[in-house]
């Protein structure tokens, strides 16, 4: 056989061998649910609901299986080992699909939740991640386990993963954190301002979680009932004399990123296992998810953006299928194409508003052209204060608005804002509008703004919105928001120091937006709105103020957009 023929045969046979490897996986038509209590290093117990492969629905199948786990603060009291996961809204059949393919699925009740000891519930405490560590190590050392454990889940379930992985449980092999973040400050304090999500956080360990779906999960035995009563008694006793919701107390008491926030945020540089980060647009975690991608220490990492969120799932990405493709590669060693994805399309994303699935080698996209859009004079529409375009303005000018604590029109952090009409409000903010774009213009990636302004208050916030204005001006959609408490001056300082704003003097501010991926259609106009409040999403600043937004050669206020060449 010639060398050339041998090479051709290799090319032909390689896909066949990969397909055969997948086809050789045994399938299991049944499952067995088990409810276990694992003793932690603290002497208490963490509860795990298991769903194990079975051939007859009565006994666990022989052999060893990798484990997929969710570390969930949402798990209600009571057994539910083979029910759908709560942490992957786009994977309604993930439990059954995984078990059929030879995985053990584990619902780990986070400390202080469900039937697990611990609490009061606080992800920032080391004991929260270390109790999960003990649960993962138990899962990796059972007789039915191969010793490889992967985790998955979104929101609080994703945050739990990110707060556990830095402790490096030896059997934790890989993870898929979804629409979540390891940086608590970026979520609860965007731009150093207080996000309304602070109150939402405290509903997680409360009665709404215990009574998930409006129904308590009934105990299956007297022993389980006794344990449920014991757990609830301990949870009530443990909260006596301490805040019911430590994260909220800490957030209010620590406006600056200090040692409290350093502990409350996960040290993702220590995470070296393979990670696939699933991020969301129009989501309160969008900025933190982007930071996770930049920060995590993993050599093997991927980033998917815009396919899954609190607001629901978007087309172009089968979450259950993609998750199992990832786990089959890292937990079973099957060539599912993930190695090629890591090399060639580590960034997969969805371009709104048409949900166009695209991919790139990495994030930010290497071909990105960071383009400055300047504020300027010469308003194209009487309700706008000025122009917004790529040509630096030659004429100096300013635009004034008056802020009171009741100003601002809310923007739903869970995604309703993607289609929400928010036309310009006169008086309480100033807006700048560009000319119609000559061709479809994709904006994908990090967005920042340099803003020059003066104010009559020594403490003023800035809430900036990127706008997509329809050709006839009948609708204005907010694409993304940027926030900054003026006393921080800019995001580059990492919100660690504050200083009063000099009243009546022009100050330069640097604002970071939530990332986005959006196609501005031909004929549409790109605009920006600047205010000092965003009622409904951000707690209002109590200080009334008159704000002058400056622009021109001396004060080149501009938004830098990541434009993707077509």
Structural features, described:
With 566 residues, the protein is α+β, with helices and mostly antiparallel strands. It contains 13 helices and 25 strands. It has helices at 3-23, 94-100, 126-140, 156-164, 184-188, 197-201, 207-210, 222-238, 246-253, 259-264, 286-295, 319-332, 338-344, and strands at 30-39, 45-54, 65-72, 104-109, 145-154, 172-178, 275-279, 301-305, 308-309, 312-313, 347-351, 356-360, 369-376, 386-389, 397-403, 430-436, 441-445, 448-455, 461-469, 476-485, 507-513, 516-520, 525-531, 545-551, 558-564. A 10-stranded mixed beta sheet has the order 1-2-4-3-5-6-7-8-11-12, with helices on both faces. The chain has a 9-stranded mixed beta barrel with strand order 13-14-16-23-19-20-21-18-25. Helix 4 links the parallel strand 5 (145-154) and strand 6. Helix 3 (126-140) crosses helix 4. The longest helix is centred in the first third of the chain and has 21 residues, at 3-23.
Strand content: 25-35%
List the domain count as a whole number: 2
User: How many beta-strand elements?
Assistant: 25
Q: Termini distance?
A: 46 Å
Number of helices: 13
Largest sheet: 10 strands, mixed
Numbering strands along the chain, what is their spatial order in the largest sheet?
1-2-4-3-5-6-7-8-11-12
Name of the CATH homologous superfamily of the largest domain: Alpha/Beta hydrolase fold, catalytic domain
Estimated helix fraction: 10-25%
| CATH level-3 fold name of the largest domain | Rossmann fold
Could you say which structural class the secondary elements and strand pairing correspond to? Answer: alpha+beta
CATH architecture assignment name of the largest domain: 3-Layer(aba) Sandwich
Give unreliable regions as ranges.
1-23, 205-216, 410-423
CATH top level assignment of the largest domain: Alpha Beta
The pLDDT mean sits at 85
Q: Nearest-angstrom radius of gyration?
A: 26 Å
Shape: globular
